[in-house]
Design a protein that fits this description.
Elements (H helix, E strand, L loop, with lengths): L11 H10 L8 H17 L13 E2 L4 H23 L5 H10 L4 H4 E4 L2 E4 L10 H9 L4 H8 L12 H20 L12
Antiparallel strand pairs: 1-3, 2-3
The protein binds fe (ii) ion (FE2) (2 copies).
Length: about 200
């Protein structure tokens, strides 16, 4: 088995591409923004994907682009967070909530590869669960525990999810956006899969 990822602070062309792609970076304080970009650059540089556009959201034919899903989730989560803050008298630290939204699927380039137009599982997919690998990477980059634990337990098949409000917001933003992706791929959205 090879190491799942390496931290990459040197790929300036990748940093530029990641900064142009990610929605919501302007909501983060400068040091957190730098770490968020480094996290995605590291996952990309450690993956077999040449371009950001090649990263699949899920395995299968003609997969939805992960880069679109990530921004779908960040936009939806920022909207939900604003709604919750206005209606429920709660407050979010953008350096926590927005970082969680942007980074929740940071390990997907490492667990989903690509063969032609088809997304495939990499060997790492069978070694560590989705979310846990991202949590490891984020812990190594010095993110706070709330970011690490929420990302590590966000997957729909995780044994449990975080009890913090950021985990609540991420869950619905993620599933809302994922069901759009499933529709685009001609698959049944999660909310219609009950009883199957
Ligand atoms: Fe995920
Ligand atoms: Fe997701």
């Amino acid at each position: 088995m090879t190491e799942p990822y390496h931290i990459d602070t040197t790929s300036n062309w990748r940093r530029q591409a990641v900064e142009e792609w990610l929605f919501g970076l302007d909501r983060l304080s400068p040091p957190v923004r730098e770490k968020v970009v480094t996290a995605w650059v590291s996952a990309w540089a450690s993956s077999g994907h040449e371009k950001l556009e090649d990263m699949p959201f899920s395995p299968g034919e003609q997969p939805y682009r992960l880069m679109d899903h990530v921004n779908d989730v960040t936009r939806a989560g920022i909207d939900l967070g604003a709604r919750a803050a206005a209606d429920w008298k709660v407050a979010f630290d953008p350096d926590v909530l927005v970082a969680i939204l942007i980074l929740h699927d940071v390990d997907k380039p490492l667990i989903y590869g690509r063969e032609g137009d088809t997304g495939v599982h990499t060997p790492l997919f069978y070694e560590l669960p989705h979310g846990v690998i991202g949590g490891m990477l984020l812990k190594e980059l010095g993110f706070p525990h709330t970011v690490v634990s929420t990302v590590a337990t966000h997957a729909t098949n995780a044994p449990f999810h975080g009890r913090n409000l950021e985990a609540h917001v991420l869950h619905y933003a993620d599933l809302f956006a994922a069901d759009h992706a499933f529709r685009q791929m001609g698959k049944t959205p999660l909310y219609l899969r009950h009883g199957k």
